[in-house]
Amino acid sequence: MRDGNLKQVGPAEIASDLLVWYDVHARAMPWRVPPADKLSGVRPDPYRVWLSEVMLQQTTVAAVKDYFHRFTTRWPTVADLAAAEDGDVMGEWAGLGYYARARNLLKCARVVVADHGGVFPDTLAGLLKLPGVGPYTAAAIASIAYDLPEVVVDGNVERVMARLHNLHDPLPGSKPQLTELAAGLTPAQRPGDYAQAVMDLGATICTPRNPACGICPLRSPCVARVQGTALELPKKTPKKPKPTRLGIAYVGRRADGAYLLERRPDKGLLGGMLGWPGGPWSEGGAAEAPPIAADWRLLGAEARHTFTHFHLILQVRIADLPQGANPEVGQFIEPETFRPSDLPTVMRKAFDLARGGFDNTP
DNA sequence: CAGACGTGGTC
DNA sequence: TGACCAAGTCT
């Protein structure tokens, strides 16, 4: 049979082909136990598997690596994390995005310590009850950490399944079908390696833009490859356009170098993170009053930032505040305590502009 | 169930 | 430059 033709291959053989490929091409990750080490009985640490999986939700491996290293260095066990201060965890997560993940991370660590003796549940149902652990993450922990044959379905698996079976129904409506197809391939042997193999395949071979079909271990049974439809799969329902909102960031600096910051409420955008006072952002325009009376200067440049569902143009206003200033909003953070890296990215952008403003007007 | 929820990289 | 994309979850 020529390589360009479709070949009937059973589910067991597909899984087996994928595992053979994975044994050679598995990417090395700080949270992963390589296939060869598993043969000597080494098991992944459920804490590290959980932490990495939460960080990897909608986030690239490249972005996660440094955060994973900092978290596991500072909090080596789930008990260490459970005992951490909220603000320390939020600050360490700053820049990674989707901050509900960090809030749920801490909640989850405390539940595992308080209700499970510091040991992660080893069933899908038990894992699903944990804060911030949904169908994907529960199945990933169950299969990767405990080698249970649960069905792991993430964006990679959806893409691989849609192409393998040439399924043109659009996401997210087709998710149940894709899950069904994924379930049909999940093997009883080495389900954890299999799950990681599909995700590695999706990340390195069966990529969204330039799939390397020629070297894909599943090229023989892949219907989309033969039909020439791989590039258009999986289909997705079109997204709505993003509106643009306007806002103000008031960056106030006291004579001793302390900055006036506020802790944002747990609910909503950037919940639980530090930020500059400035009120809500809206399409109508920004008119929020300053947190304290002072000589606020408007900077010439604005911070631009795009969130998941809107663009933001942020005016930056700066002021030198007297040592005895007593603002209604927020709290001063001493220069020894303040780490710009504790700020979410949009707030750090405003800070970078403000710093230039202060430098120009000593 | 559709919308909220971040960010950095890529083309 | 801007739209799309990446190991989703919660409401």
TrEMBL record:
Domain HhH-GPD per the UniProt entry, residue ranges: 55-204
GO BP, sorted A to Z: base-excision repair; mismatch repair
UniProt remark on cofactor binding: Binds 1 [4Fe-4S] cluster.
Keywords: 4Fe-4S, DNA damage, DNA repair, Glycosidase, Hydrolase, Iron, Iron-sulfur, Metal-binding
Protein name: Adenine DNA glycosylase
Cofactor(s) needed: [4Fe-4S] cluster
Superkingdom of this protein's organism: Bacteria
UniProt GO MF annotations: 4 iron, 4 sulfur cluster binding; 8-oxo-7,8-dihydroguanine DNA N-glycosylase activity; adenine/guanine mispair binding; metal ion binding; oxidized purine DNA binding; purine-specific mismatch base pair DNA N-glycosylase activity
The reaction(s) this protein catalyses: Hydrolyzes free adenine bases from 7,8-dihydro-8-oxoguanine:adenine mismatched double-stranded DNA, leaving an apurinic site
EC number: 3.2.2.31
Family in the record: Belongs to the Nth/MutY family.
InterPro entries: A/G_AdeGlyc_MutY, DNA_glycosylase, Endonuclease-III-like_CS2, Endonuclease3_FeS-loop_motif, Endouclease-III_FeS-bd_BS, HhH-GPD_domain, HhH_base_excis_C, HhH_motif
Record has DNA damage as a keyword: yes
Function: Adenine glycosylase active on G-A mispairs. MutY also corrects error-prone DNA synthesis past GO lesions which are due to the oxidatively damaged form of guanine: 7,8-dihydro-8-oxoguanine (8-oxo-dGTP).
